[in-house]
Amino acid sequence: MRDSSGDSVMSPGRPSRRIPRPVVQIVLGAVLPAAILVVWHVAAQRGSAVVPPIGKVLGVLAHPFAEPENLYSAPLGIGATVSVLRVAIGFALAAVTGIPIGLLLGRLRVVRDLLNPLISAVMVISPIAWMPVAIIAFGFASVGTVLYGEEAWRADILEQLTLAVIVVVWLGTFFPIALNTAAGARSTREAHIEAVRMLGAGRVQLLRKVILPSAAPAIMTGMRVGVGIAWRVMVAAEFFPGTRSGLGHMIITAKDQTEYHYLYAAILVICAIGLILDAAARLAHLGVSRWQRKERT
């Protein structure tokens, strides 16, 4: 039915048949994953040497803490736990060091002039390139050996948190956090700073009440980027010798021993955990930047 201008109008009393947008997004988003599953099933049925049956992969996922058969690796659940802890420690260290240094870079010109050449030179190097250096520097020392010394074997999980991997994760995560923090600190409005100073605020109050809240959205952006980099760097770092568990270690071990159902299961777990980490970072960013969106309206 059309009005006098030629535009279509809805007949009175007739309910709308438009499909809700969330349903459309879910359906469209499921198309490619479903197609991949079909291709995977067909390749496995035709006896592909490198594509295991979906059922075998689901069997590994259904029993994550079962000891792997014919595979020299820790169970999938233990490996995932170790990988997450490595990322958590490296990411926490990057936040603790990157935010203060980023604030100094953003607010003090002398610090920028001092550190910018070094930061520009180091940040263009892939963090994985530092893994051999980290192994030489730290050997096979771990969080367990730092805390318990020769008794580290009693704390099996901590003994597997090798310092070399943690340092490489920290190195990959530090730069996005520090540089985004610096950008946020520089973007703080000088009018706000001067107003607070006129009210008698000291440096600590200025930092807490003005600079940090203003820089918070940029800091969260850096942390969201950083957690994604940390997760990818961790998987690659676990390919190197010296690790006895972790999702990356399971992938490389399963490849070497042709136990491909463990390889695919580890990849799926990496994907799932990565999506969870990104979703958590996105929610945290939305919560922090809510005031900024209100200010623009």
Characterise this structure.
The chain is mostly helical and 297 residues long. The protein has one domain (60-67, 74-296): MetI-like (MetI-like fold). Helix content is 72%, strand content 0%. It contains 13 helices and no strands. Helix 11 (247-256) runs antiparallel to helix 12.
pLDDT < 50 runs, ≥5 residues: none
Q: Helix count? A: 13
Distance between the termini: 38 Å
| Mean model confidence by pLDDT | 83
Let me know the largest β-sheet: none
What fraction of the residues are assigned to beta strands by DSSP?
under 5%
CATH fold naming: MetI-like fold
- Helices and strands: which structural class? mainly alpha
What's the architecture in CATH terms? Orthogonal Bundle
* Rg: 25 Å
Extended strand count: 0
Task: Tell me the number of structural domains.
Answer: 1
Q: What would CATH call the class? A: Mainly Alpha
Helix content: over 70%
